[in-house]
Design a protein that fits this description.
Layout lengths: L3 H4 L3 H11 L18 E5 L2 E4 L4 E4 L2 H5 L8 H13 L10 H12 L6 E5 L2 H19 L6 E5 L8 H5 L4 H4 L9 E4 L15 H16 L4 E6 L15 H11 L3 E5 L23 E4 L11 E5 L1 H5 L22 H15 L2 H22 L3 E6 L4 E8 L4 E2 L2 H13 L2 E2 L1 E2 L10 E4 L7 H18 L2
Parallel strand pairs: 3-14, 5-6, 5-7, 7-8, 8-9
Antiparallel strand pairs: 1-2, 2-3, 4-10, 9-10, 11-12, 12-13, 12-16, 15-16
Helix pairs in contact: 4-12, 5-12, 9-10, 13-15, 14-15
Length: 460
């Protein structure tokens, strides 16, 4: 394969330019004084190559669970090119052809929802949702129902408002004070629930949310925001009965149910959206990452007609949703999203995720027979986690340093996996797997094989 690193005239110059001028996300730069930053240059399917020519298999879809259809999709690139040459941008106060077309196609996948509001990141999509909630509170509830509930260990983005709704303390550290009106509810990880686990845990975990609602006052709560499956907080699949009870509680107290599908959306869990695994009907759904698989920036805040209609009042000069996202008007996003969705449909990638997910989970569970440090394996579709522990008896988490050493060992083997890290004090101990939805059994065997070897070398 004639890869880009072979065509780069001076890779050393690129590395030094990066070292001198680029401020990387989520990265301590002190080590770059003595080691080179890693620069990725090309991808095809699940494989990516760095500037030094090393090939890797990517088990985390671009590092942050984004490239759902894999790398090198020429038809998406062509769709973006064609649309931006014809009309690259128009502010979202008016429409565009790809914006209208993708909204229609998206709504077809989401029965019960009717409206799509475009922006350009998951953080922004969530902020839009909460602004809607706050404006509904002001316009229809006298400002009372303005509080937003969020769950411990969930993550909703990186802005200050999103961190205010962030259930990962180490991600929030040093960024306060935070916005008022955000209230935490307990997580639903049965594996770390101790004596509270067992039969009926799902309903009890949901009832713990209602306890918070009753303490705060139902007439003060505007919405409950949850990930369908907690992602970076440890791949936490809510237990049986949880989601049904959550929806019942929200309806009982007239609280909008906001599902954050930024990670789980567009096939990741084996259905188009994670909430569809549970037969519930949200009022607001937000999404980003897999919407265009990283080929262009796009996010969506999708609502029911009930939510939308609360902003239609031309007798109130401030009654409409007074918000804008500049790059929500770029045509590249919905153009890429249209082709991305078409690929998912034509290649049966939602179905492949549903089929390959149990295979990946089964292979990871086989590791439990060989490595006592693998405490639990959990997930849905091509979204799986393996929680590492020092003791299966006590569920004591394996130290984060060892978990990260497992990740580093896999990387040295040419396999890129993820792990919860620097998020939840004492509980950054879950290996994370979210390969592209094109993954085959051979791909998954290679990924799990690397983890097997790493666990043997690092943990023993």
């Amino acid at each position: 394969m004639d890869t880009l690193y072979e065509r780069t005239n001076d890779p050393r110059a690129v590395i030094e330019a990066d070292r001198a001028h680029v401020w990387h996300h989520l990265t301590q730069h002190k080590p770059f004084e003595t080691v080179d930053p890693r620069i990725m240059v090309e991808g095809k399917g699940l494989r990516v190559w760095d500037i030094k020519g090393k090939e890797h298999i990517d088990a985390v879809s671009g590092g942050v669970w984004t490239v759902n259809v894999g790398y090198g999709r020429e038809r998406i690139a062509n769709a973006v090119r064609d649309n931006i040459l014809k009309l690259c941008f128009w502010a979202g106060a008016q429409g565009t052809i790809p914006g209208a077309q993708f909204a229609e196609r998206l709504i077809e996948k989401m029965p019960g929802l009717t409206r799509v509001y475009y922006s350009n990141s998951g953080s922004e999509a969530n902020e839009k949702a909460w602004k809607m909630v706050r404006q509904i509170s002001a316009k229809h509830h006298g400002g009372r129902k303005s509080k937003i509930l969020y769950r411990d260990r969930d993550y909703h983005g990186t802005t200050l408002a999103c961190l205010s709704a962030g259930g990962q303390q180490e991600r929030n550290a040093m960024y306060g004070p935070f916005a008022p009106g955000f209230v935490q509810v307990p997580h639903c990880l049965e594996y770390q629930a101790g004596d509270q686990g067992g039969e009926g845990y799902g309903e009890r975990a949901a009832n713990a949310i209602e306890e918070v609602i009753l303490r705060e006052g139902p007439d003060t709560i505007g919405c409950l925001c949850l990930e369908p499956i907690t992602a970076g907080g440890g791949i936490i699949v809510p237990p049986k009965g949880y989601w049904e009870r959550v929806q019942e509680i929200c309806r009982k107290h007239d609280i909008l149910l906001h599902i954050d599908e930024v990670v789980c959306g567009l096939g990741r869990t084996g259905t188009w959206f994670g909430y569809q695994q549970y037969g519930i009907q949200p009022d607001i759904v937000t999404m980003a990452k897999g919407v265009a698989s990283g080929y262009a920036a796009i996010s969506c805040t999708v609502t029911t007609d009930r939510v939308f209609e609360m902003f239609k009042d031309d007798t109130d000069r401030l009654g409409y949703f007074r918000d804008i996202s500049t790059f929500g008007g770029c045509t590249a996003g919905p153009a890429a999203a249209m082709e991305n969705m078409a690929i998912i449909e034509e290649e049966g990638l939602v179905e492949n995720s549903a089929a390959m997910g149990p295979y990946l989970q089964g292979k990871l569970r086989e590791l439990m027979d060989r490595h006592a440090c693998v405490g639990e394996v959990r997930g849905l579709g091509l979204f799986q986690g393996a929680e590492l522990v020092s003791s299966r008896d006590t569920h004591e988490p394996l130290p984060e340093k060892q978990v990260q050493a497992v990740v580093a060992d896999c990387l040295a083997q040419g396999v890129i996996i993820g792990a919860s890290n620097r998020s939840m004090p004492g509980y950054n101990n879950t290996l994370l797997f979210a390969p592209s939805l094109v993954a085959t059994k051979d791909d998954l065997d290679q990924i799990v094989g690397a983890v097997d070897g790493a666990l043997g070398r690092v943990v023993g």
